[in-house]
Design brief:
Shape: globular
Structural class: alpha/beta
InterPro entries: Epimerase_deHydtase (IPR001509), Lipid_A_modif_metabolic_enz (IPR050177), NAD(P)-bd_dom_sf (IPR036291)
Protein name: NAD-dependent epimerase/dehydratase
Radius of gyration: 20 Å
Number of helices: 10
CATH topology of one domain: Rossmann fold
Number of strands: 15
CATH superfamily of one domain: NAD(P)-binding Rossmann-like Domain
Order of helices and strands: EHEEHEHEEHEEHEEEHHEEHEEHH
CATH architecture of one domain: 3-Layer(aba) Sandwich
Pfam families: Epimerase
Mean pLDDT: 93
């Protein structure tokens, strides 16, 4: 008799990261419940058995409905407000309800719904490398002390701490994967990337100058969205080995943003046939944080050793895919 594939519940399945994870899961012989406020888009060539559940998880009782019967939960819910996915104003209670409150709800459901002798619910949480705060050194390896500076990072850390405390109690078997600067789009993308790289791609496509809050030498560890999706699925496959702590994800390479944006300008010019836009340094806005001006590269060797994950898409190729997608949005064939 064939074994029933595990049920993976993907929270935030219509979002930027979640939709990419859904595409990755769809290639595998598993059962997936894709949970989100907007209907998730199921790939037409999916091998997985996919159920779409459209609910607002902030409503009472919805978390229990969403994770009923789950073997594994991948928590990719993001609070989105304004032009970016991560800037959160101090004291933003709506953001706190989504970022921290939903993790509390998940823990409560796991605690109350676990049958005697049943294995704990396995959970993969999408954290952020920026939770550490202002980087004490350029290369981060996960041994740093967390001192989050902004509200987004404080809320992410609070959610992660809640989940790992529940792991310590035996309520869940949980890990947090702290994501780097994630970016990108491609021909199968169904959700818009609102991060700074794609934002500047869209500026260039619109013929507007690309702007930076520094001189362009600040380095970032940039990982393409499809590689991040593969990493989160790998984490779900290795929850037991990863459980009980947070793990940093990154490529191991920091690239100066000035170089990234110059490449973007050239790629957009090649796609559109127009002259490349300028890449300019401008004064930072009032909401800029100290971390915006510090270089960050991530040593993810610990995560790689456990999961075998490696990024597959080189930066230049990832940028080219993103530019082509954004041009296609504006000039559909």
């Amino acid at each position: 008799m064939a074994l029933t594939p595990p049920l993976i519940v993907l929270l935030g399945a219509s979002g930027f990261v979640g939709s990419a994870v859904l595409r990755e899961l769809a290639t595998r012989p598993v059962r997936v419940r894709a949970v989100s406020r907007r209907p998730a888009v199921v790939p037409g060539d999916a091998r997985a058995e996919i159920e779409v559940l459209t609910v607002d998880l902030c409503e009472p009782g919805r978390m229990a409905e969403a994770v009923a019967g789950a073997d594994i939960v991948i928590h990719a819910v993001a609070y989105i407000d304004g032009v970016t996915t991560w800037r959160v104003a101090d004291g933003d209670s709506a953001a706190e309800r989504v970022t921290v409150g939903l993790v509390r709800d998940l823990v409560d459901v796991a605690r109350s719904g676990r049958a005697d002798g049943a294995p704990p619910l396995r959970v993969v949480f999408t954290g952020a490398a920026s939770q550490v705060g202002v980087a004490p050194r350029e290369v981060l390896d996960g041994t740093e002390t967390d001192r989050p500076a902004g509200e987004y990072d404080r809320q992410k850390l609070a959610a992660e701490t809640t989940l790992l405390a529940a792991h310590a109690e035996g309520v869940v078997e949980a890990t947090s994967i702290r994501l780097p600067t994630v970016f990108g789009s491609g021909p199968r993308s169904t959700a818009r990337d609102k991060g700074v790289v794609s934002l500047m791609v869209r500026r260039a496509v619109a013929g507007q100058d690309i702007t930076m809050w520094h001189d362009g030498t600040v380095r970032r560890d940039l990982v393409y969205i499809d590689d991040v999706a593969r990493a989160l699925v790998a984490a779900a496959e290795h929850v037991t080995e990863l459980a009980g702590r947070a793990w940093l994800l990154g490529s191991g390479h920091g690239t100066p943003l000035g170089e990234v944006f110059a490449t973007v300008a050239e790629l957009v010019a090649a796609e559109t046939g127009k002259p490349p836009v300028a890449v300019l340094s401008v004064p930072p806005p009032a909401n800029a944080e100290a971390g915006d001006f510090r270089s960050v590269t991530i040593d993810a060797s610990a995560f790689r050793a456990v999961t075998g994950w490696e990024p597959r898409v080189p930066l230049d190729e990832a940028l080219a895919r993103t530019v082509a997608h954004c041009v296609q949005e504006v000039e559909p064939s």
